[in-house]
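Give me the fold.
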Amino acid sequence: MELKTVIETKELTKIYNTQIAVDRLTFKVYESEIFGFLGPNGAGKTTTLLMILGLTEPTTGTVQVLDVNPVREPLKVKRFIGYLPENMGFYRDLNAWESLRFVAELNGLPRQVAEERIVDALRCVDMLKDANKKIEAYSRGMRQRLGIAEVLVKNPKIAFLDEPTLGLDPDATNRMMGLIKELSKEKHMTVLLSSHLLHQAQKICDRVGIMINGRMVAQGAMDQLAEEKLGVGKETYTLEEIYMKYFQEA
């Protein structure tokens, strides 16, 4: 069965003054997959995300999100996409119910639809029992799960998660990884996971793309990349070994 493409870029390029932030980027992301968007700080991941969201225009090249051009129809594209930034901001004097209702209002959801989605989102992230607590009392892990709940209230087809486990303890990290897999497999949501924690990405990503100095130097399933770059076939390998091989050659 042919996979449905939900994000596609062709020769996507962004230049700030004379600095090339993204250099002729061509890649696809498929429906319901978890795509690991990997690379060091300054690799061009955030700039790429801004172009996909329609928040900045490419210098050259094209990007399509579910067959919509985000440059021409940025508001339409934003209806498809949920975004969890690395540093999620909340009104800390609100509780989870109030915060999610605010998100629902911003997205123009009818009251009944909003309430149903809020309950479902809180249940999905296992926060119903803590939903009446003020956000200022939440741990970082709880705030990250609330951020996922905010994504779910939008009911997006695509979720961008930027370093969703940064600063979490091992138990909270495992719970977050499990939640991300559930979003992809049970809710059929496409997840674009931006991370530099390669051992975590290896556990849950269906495919990865490695960006270095604005260029996508590799993309594909990890066993495919391991065979191409390390020649290990089905032998044991780590995503870090694959990544470092590409990094050293870039």
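The two ends are 34 Å apart (CA to CA).
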